[in-house]
Design goal:
heterotetramer; A: alpha+beta; Dna Ligase, domain 1; D-amino Acid Aminotransferase, Chain A, domain 1; Rossmann fold; 13 helices; 25% strand; B: 295 residues; alpha/beta; 2 domains; 7-stranded mixed beta sheet; 10 helices
């Protein structure tokens, strides 16, 4: 779960990481007052979760409170890469000499935490670092020990910070680790971390992502879970599915991310276009399957529904009952193609065949059939 | 032998739960030597004839032959259960549980490594030696005994490919589900090494998916080996939507690795054929085996 | 550094470990009021750091506030095993069925933490456990992982606690670990941990010992450091020495605990009696050596001073200068026998010999000389 | 070779401090190959001709041959310094520093073990191979080259006994100071194993002291060995005042071990002679060596 910049900066600030003075505004009037309080010259930042908002015009400077009012009027209610702007973070302008990059995340392959450090902070960081890999320092932090002060000395030398800033960098990196653990974060990122005119470090932007699996330990965020998603995606997430809408016409329901992706690959391989990615996960019972089917049927683009289920911890009979439930309670009538194998396969097949569904054993056959149906060839 | 065989005595942690008891039944039916189960507070019960204990310590006291554990406990208690197994000396722990907090996973895997313990998973279908033992939740009938090692990041896709292999008469020596989470106890390199040392495995089928760089790292490792067994790969996710972006860090750390094209190229450059569909896998297997038998 | 029971119980209570309701009293009147507030029937516990205070009469029950007043008058100002009673902890009486033992400490050999668990709680625990080793459960807790809930299940089964108490034991053991880390403790001990009439667990006594080397991280305790020591011992501790007074007449100053003990062993081997144990530690300079010598000279029993220094990180010239400084500024004139070898030995020997001291090379010779002097044989 | 020899390249952490610079000089004079030092913030300086770096990483970049580190940094920064050394791949770390917090020691030692790193100390005089190298603070001249392995919990007492040995013509192959703190990176058993495998060591002198059960554990271990080298012990503290009592836990955990009588009995029962005074040690060494030469 991604946090908004203002939420991440609040956490950073509470952990003694310097951030600009800032005030949240939901109306142009609030933005004006915020600008007044911050001394007139401010930056207004759209609070959205999509990336690269700066390039999309989501970060604007204002020289006076009136200008802040005007810009806030333009930004609030507008849409940035499809996400509506509800709030602005109005911040003091900060003079800085250099933009650095500093983040803490998980190194999957190394099964460890890793600090990423670069003197090439800013929006172009990814491209710059790819072109100049020697400008990136990775510092592995063992999950047992966490942050150790020597790491900040490595980073400070790499960033060519003067000796007097080492203590501050140490404190920032220590706080990042504490945030990582206390908030069960997957990512704590400051880009840019500014080296200010006259000295000092300050996080001009902040990103924190919380591990979804840990949200039960953070009820204050759990209740906000899913806020950045489309209505259908949010519903799916509530139900515990992975769901992403695409622009094709074959509705896809599978169990397991790998099988779902492989089924989509197969649809394209045979010339069709999937309408969505929907993984019901492991062990879904009758009720969750019913909801999954209903969810896909809500997408008007879907011409045909393809289920590809290979039962392991998921039981085919439960899936079959869920499919029957959903279709019996739905008003939509579209073709449903089921491919089903594995745990309790016979029972599942019997339930579906009793209701007149055609059940395939072979994935290739089922997918080819779905593609034919979607093209109107059947 | 790759980690387990027909003689391996198995403990089921979380045996009284819905999944635990159901799969205990299926594993017993398959012939797995499940000798004890643990559910705190349920000591003294029986599940499918298997005695239940409150603690791993008590289970081991009565059944000192236990060599592996399979964990079905809910995500928020999984860390506790896995550490209990490690601290009681078990060396193979299969973690079926899905949704374990990331930091818990990192810590349990790091700890397991420091104690010489192999964790399979989390979020894995488990490990299975067809015809001998199944310590997992995979549908047993699609896995025929044979000489192909199967290693996968995906559960159901593994069943799919095992079935395709079986249809063409190819059986499986051992199947290892690495697990679908970002951090797992085994990776492709470590699993390959186990198969490399296994005289019952002739060829390895690697089932990967987009995300992370485990496939690329394996390709790099494999390309540098002098002596090797043939590997065939299938990678899911050619047409998948991009996943959530992990700030800049995700892109920086992967350095362009992680997508389908990157994985396919790395594997092919390492001399590993990549199948386009699951049903192509046995075709390529057939080609490689017939080429080898002609030598 | 040992904490008083009332300090340890405050920490326990702040960490949600149940303890009896209690009030600290420094006067009989305070004890009476405390007893009134606690319902009349109370137990009065002398707050001393020496062990086995119960057997020495330091724990007394009172049935009425007046009786509490009377007993407090007897206890306050009295001495328990040499330690003056300044404060009493007045506690409610708790009805319990069983006395258990539970502690967390460091397993030196295992280089780990270890919980010690026994159903044989109470003052006789050591003897009982030695007689019935099967009544002791040791649960090792790895420094990386700390406390893991399964440990409490092992303990609960071992203590034969009913299922409904498992959660409470889990919470107590988790808190003990947190205390161990947060307070840099060497020991967190509850003896007895009572299993109360009608259920529930409660720490009737509590001991916490803080690692002296970590006190700089705990300024609130650092300022109390040394409070349980004799005047001379406290002074030594402030100066960074290990000092223990004994009843012999040969003052001993050495560097390193091993060499100090070996020198004392040698004194006894040759028929003498050491007046003290004083290890100046590693790397003591001129000033600290001067203070060490002055400290030993303050003990009127000392007839002869024996220094046995083997320089490593300690430098003989610094020691020599410190000895000369101390003796030149002291009014006491007693024989001083120096044995000195190692780092900067020549310089140290020169300094002492210039001042007319006899410097030995061999420990046996120096010790035999000191014994002879102490016996008046020289 | 026991851990180090004349070719071992050494890093000094805390080289610019009072003790660090002084003992760098003494070690260099002895012939120790000190090639670099580290003090954060002092990079670019030189100490006795040795270049100083801000980080271990930079020191290793310029001096990749460094194999061991000796740590002089103050107690509250020692944990940081030791972890920096471990994370940079050094495998032998000699921690001279005294007064390190107990929990820091536990964590650093546990971590070192999990990474295959040997920590000598903390609170140790170090390790020395007389005539070859000294990575420590012991007064060099009392240690003569020879064939006796010396392992000790005490610093100055070790010098005393080495000198007594030297007076009688017995030299030392390697001396290891385990360190005086309750928890140390090496114990007697681990040190004995190193000497057991060292062809240059004929006999081991063990210098113990009261407290803990390291001597008793060694005696137990030694008594069960089939092939062994002779060991002679000296234990300090026969007449020492009792130390501070660690609640009941200290007594319970030691179970009667830890005092002089217990240690002496355990060692003698294991066939290890115990000297009454330091000067008796060479006498017993002489007896054992002459007995062996008669065989």
């Amino acid at each position: 779960m991604k946090l908004y910049e203002y939420e991440a900066k609040k956490i950073a600030s509470e952990n003694n990481i310097p951030v600009p003075r800032g005030i949240l505004a939901s109306t142009p009037e609030e933005a004006r007052r915020a600008a007044e309080e911050l001394g007139g010259r401010v930056v207004l930042k759209a609070q959205v979760l999509v990336g690269r908002r700066g390039l999309a015009g989501g970060i604007r400077k204002a020289s006076t409170p009136d200008e802040a009012y005007m810009i806030a009027g333009e930004l609030l209610g507008s849409s940035i890469r499809g996400e509506r702007v509800e709030k602005l973070l109005v911040e003091e302008l900060v003079c800085f000499e250099r933009e650095l990059y500093l983040s803490l995340t998980v190194d999957r392959s190394g099964r460890s935490y890793v600090y990423l450090v670069s003197p090439l902070g800013g929006v172009e960081i990814e491209e710059l670092v790819r072109k100049h890999p020697e400008k990136l320092l990775k510092i592995s932090a063992d999950p047992f020990n966490g942050y150790i002060p020597y790491m900040s000395r490595l980073a400070a030398k790499f960033l060519e910070l003067p000796r007097r800033e080492w203590g501050l960098l140490n404190s920032i990196m220590e706080s990042m680790y504490r945030i990582m653990i206390n908030y069960d974060a997957e990512l704590v990122e400051f880009n840019p971390l500014a080296y200010k005119c006259g000295g000092g470090l300050m996080a001009l932007d902040a990103k924190i992502t919380i591990d979804d699996n840990s949200l039960y330990r953070h009820p204050e965020y759990l209740k906000l879970y899913g806020r950045e998603l489309s209505v259908l995606e949010a519903k799916a997430k509530q139900l515990g599915f992975s769901y992403v809408e695409l622009d094709g016409d074959i509705g896809v329901i599978c169990n397991g991310a790998g099988l779902t992706m492989a089924t989509m690959d197969l649809i394209l391989y045979y010339g069709g276009r999937p309408a969505n990615f929907l993984d019901i996960g492991g062990g879904a019972g009758r009720d969750r399957v019913r909801e999954a089917v209903k969810l896909v049927l809500e997408n008007p683009r879907v011409k045909v529904l393809l289920l590809n289920i290979f039962g392991g911890i998921t039981r085919c009979d439960e899936v079959a009952r869920g499919v029957v439930d959903a279709l019996e309670s739905s008003k939509r009538r579209i073709p449903v193609i089921v491919r089903m194998l594995g745990t309790n396969e016979e029972e599942g097949r019997r339930i579906l065949e009793e209701k007149g569904f055609k059940v395939f054993s072979e994935a290739d056959e089922a997918v080819r059939e779905a593609v034919r149906v979607s093209r109107g060839e059947v | 032998m790759v980690l387990v065989d027909r003689n391996t005595e198995v403990l089921v942690q979380g045996i009284t739960g819905r999944e635990g008891s159901f799969h205990t039944k299926l594993m017993l039916e398959y012939g797995t030597r499940i000798v004890a189960g643990v559910t705190p507070g349920k000591g003294g019960l029986e599940v499918r004839g298997v005695p239940v204990y409150d603690t791993v310590y008590e289970a081991l006291r009565d059944h000192p032959g236990i060599a592996a554990s399979i964990v079905f406990v809910p995500a928020r208690f999984a860390y506790d259960a896995v550490l209990e197994a490690i601290d009681n000396g078990l060396k193979i722990i299969v973690v079926i549980t899905e949704g374990i907090p990331l930091h818990d996973e990192l810590r349990m895997i790091r700890y397991a490594k420091s104690r010489g313990v192999t964790i399979i998973g989390p979020n894995t279908p488990g490990i299975m030696v067809p015809g001998e033992t199944k310590i997992g939740i995979m549908p047993a009938h699609v896995f025929k005994p044979g000489r192909i090692g199967l290693v996968s990041r995906s559960g159901t896709l593994t069943y799919e490919i095992a079935r395709e292999l079986g249809k063409r008469g190819y059986g499986v020596s051992t199947v290892i589900g690495l697990g679908g989470d970002p951090v797992t106890g085994l990776n492709f390199i470590e699993a390959y090494r186990l198969f490399m040392d296994d005289p019952r495995t002739d060829l390895i089928v690697l089932i990967g998916e987009i995300g992370g760089d485990a496939e690329e790292r394996f390709a790099m490792y494999y390309s540098k080996l002098d002596v090797k067994k043939p590997v065939i790969a299938y990678i899911a996710g050619k047409t998948a939507p991009p996943g959530k972006r992990m700030g800049h860090a995700g892109a920086i750390i992967s350095m362009g690795m992680g997508d389908y094209a990157s994985k396919r190229k790395a594997l092919i450059d390492a001399g590993i054929p990549v199948a386009d569909t699951p049903s192509q896998v046995p075709v390529i297997v057939g080609e490689i085996l017939s080429r080898r038998s002609k030598h």
